[in-house]
# Entry
Amino acid sequence: MRIAIVSDIHGNLTAFEAVLADLRETAPDLIFHGGDLVQGGANSAEIVDRIRDLGWPGVVGNTDEMMFRPESLTEFLKLASLVAVIQEMAAVEREWLGEERLAWLRGLPAKQIHGSMALVHASPDSCWRAPMPEAADAEFEKVYSSLGQPIVVYAHVHRSFVRMVSPMTVVNTGSVSMSHDGDRRAAYLLLDDGKVEIRRVEYDVDRELKALAECGLPHAHWIARILESARPQMP
# Structure
């Protein structure tokens, strides 16, 4: 069976449509989403609607949780200046989403198990905390061994990679939007009977930057810098 996992769309409709076009070419048997559908893009509400219409099973991400449980941001993040910026952005996107979409996000599970694969957004116990690609094998074992599956997939860190951590293969999907690895292309994961492929998909970044500039999202210039550089940035 061929399985795709698409994660960290962050309201970026331009990148998402490019990924959908690539999925029509790769034609997986099953598609999951890895959370972080919203926050930091021009079209969070439309992304939620599209995912629901497509019927993709998936997991809750930290930015999804932040929308329906605002206090989760301050529980995790202690830098006051950054919290204030994200809270201002989230308040606007929360209005865009509306109560019915927020209720749907609230109902997303923390994990998905399918065959030999386990999917979480960040870790089994938190959608906010996850090992970075450079973490030691022991950290990956500590975080993910409880899932009890030979293939563990997560997202969250916006950097795709594959790690062999006996007895697991740990895979990060990368992100559809706001890549942090210097490559502006969207990323998603394709599993083909255990074979792992990270797909990178070109999209019209300038088109998304224009949509972002016109949508009325506070601090859109911050997100624009991340999209342009494909690197983490401070507001």
Notes: The chain has a mean pLDDT of 97. The radius of gyration is 17 Å. The helical segments are 13-26, 44-54, 62-68, 71-76, 80-106, 137-144, 205-214, 220-229.
